[in-house]
Design goal:
mainly alpha
């Protein structure tokens, strides 16, 4: 696969963006608790980002299809930078809420267009390119939480937020020269092409995946804090997660070019289900790092494969909207699940919340199993 200038810009933007958002994500729940905000309210704050993204993704996908994926990514970087500066100035529930709203706008405009741009620019190597994109996200999971945890323990939260703002500005600078450049074939796609059966089914899978990821990311962070662990320990958890995910995302990208990506994703969600089942008992340090490794390995098999399935389901002219619809599932799950499981944790304890959370990856695996069996029966395999 030849790395074109456009693909290089998108991948560099992905690296900078996810380094920035994961710096914030790895400490924001802890920051909320340190401000005196309760567990349930912290989970509600955590879910604001996917809620805002859920509302705006159809619009951002439409804008990206009609104008440029690079323009959408630049807008996403600008709002993410503004959100990071707002975090630095926040001091209570209201100001944190405002920052989370800006963060959600940034995610809505950056994430889906970056998926569509990578797949379209890479052409026949879309699976491999999406695997590389996912690896960069895992690299952020590996690096950012450790850096953020060390900074918070030594200097406080504000330097973390300022560093995130700087990385988000890099995204704007990278994409600015290309904002007039459209990606993919000409013509204006329709919502009918984007809202196809495959995308809608994958959206349901993404509801489960987003619910698990956002719940674990927020709830375990708060749980560690309440157990008396320093911020760096959640960083270590994410580092183990990142290493495992880094390896399997590359493997998933390669496998998706030679076999049905749905089967790879099914295997991934089976491993995710096992990891969440273990979290009920292995939530303490260092046992929870075993969960991190299993969860990272499983998730790494699901992300590029499901993205590839969504991308392939629509023509290039409607690809941003198709990916946006798929990603809305992640947002919907990321909004609902943290509130539900945060309430469970506040009422009955973290362990009870983890015990019920395993239902989500099991549902995702069941849906993917149905897709795989249906496809096999149609092809006569």
């Amino acid at each position: 696969m030849r790395l074109s200038k456009e693909l290089g810009v998108v991948l560099a933007s992905v690296a900078s963006y996810f380094l920035a958002v994961q710096l914030v994500a790895s400490v924001i729940a802890r920051y909320s608790r340190d401000l005196g905000i309760g567990i349930a309210a912290t989970s509600a704050l955590w879910s604001i980002v996917p809620l805002v993204s859920l509302v705006l993704r159809p619009f951002s996908g439409y804008v990206a299809d009609r104008t440029s994926s690079f323009l959408a990514m630049a807008v996403g970087g600008a709002f993410t930078a503004a959100a990071s500066l707002a975090y630095a100035a926040s001091h209570d529930m209201a100001s944190l809420t405002a920052a989370r709203v800006l963060h959600g706008v940034g995610g809505a405009f950056f994430i889906s267009p970056s998926i569509a741009a990578v797949a379209t620019v890479a052409g026949e190597y879309a699976g491999l390119a999406l695997g590389l994109r996912s690896m960069l996200i895992s690299l952020g999971s590996l690096v950012s939480p450790v850096i953020a945890g060390v900074i918070v323990d030594s200097y406080g939260y504000v330097p973390v937020f300022l560093l995130a703002a700087l990385l988000a500005i890099v995204v704007v600078v990278l994409n600015a020269p290309y904002i007039r450049r459209r990606v993919g074939e000409g013509g204006d796609g329709s919502w009918r092409e984007a809202l196809n059966r495959t995308v809608l089914i994958l959206m349901a899978v993404a509801v489960c995946g987003g619910g698990v990821f956002m719940t674990v990311s927020g709830l375990l962070q708060a749980h560690y804090r309440d157990l008396g662990y320093g911020a760096k320990y959640y960083g270590y958890f994410m580092a183990f997660f990142g290493v495992a995910s880094l390896a399997t995302r590359y493997v998933a990208g390669r496998l998706s070019m030679r076999m049905d990506p749905g089967r790879v994703a099914l295997a991934g969600y089976s491993v995710v289900a096992l990891s969440i089942a273990l979290l009920r008992w292995l939530y303490w340090v260092p046992a929870s790092f075993v969960v991190a490794i299993l969860y990272g390995a499983g998730l790494g098999l699901t992300v590029p494969t499901i993205q590839l399935m969504a991308v392939r389901s629509a023509p290039e002219r409607a690809r941003n909207r198709a990916v946006a619809v798929y990603a809305m599932g992640f947002d919907l799950g990321g909004f609902i699940a943290p509130n539900v499981f945060g309430y469970m944790a506040a009422a009955w304890g973290y362990e009870t919340s983890y015990a019920w959370l395993v239902a989500l990856p099991l549902v995702a695996a069941a849906v993917l199993g149905y897709i795989t069996l249906s496809k096999s029966s149609r092809t006569g395999e």
